[in-house]
Specification:
3 helices; Non-ribosomal Peptide Synthetase Peptidyl Carrier Protein, Chain A
């Protein structure tokens, strides 16, 4: 999966998790937690929807995963 496809899936998962992203400019430097886009509950819901989009458990992301930077998510999704 390339970066454009990954960003598209990330946005789709955020919308499915009912996260309002209209006021944010998402780019590779965006940290979804640090910038207040996701809280801890939203993060788990987002991950659920992201895994649903790739139709597979994303093993690189676990309960301890605390880097929700778009660039990191793109790197992880490149394996799917």
């Amino acid at each position: 999966m390339n970066a454009t496809e990954s960003v598209s899936l990330i946005k789709k998962a955020l919308i499915s998790a009912e996260v309002d992203i209209e006021d944010y400019s998402l780019n590779e430097d965006t940290d979804l937690i640090e910038e207040g886009i996701l809280d801890s509950l939203d993060a788990m819901t987002f991950l659920f929807h992201l895994e649903k989009e790739v139709n597979e458990k994303i093993s690189e992301i676990d309960d301890e995963f605390d880097d929700f930077r778009i660039a990191t998510l793109i790197q992880i999704l490149s394996n799917y």
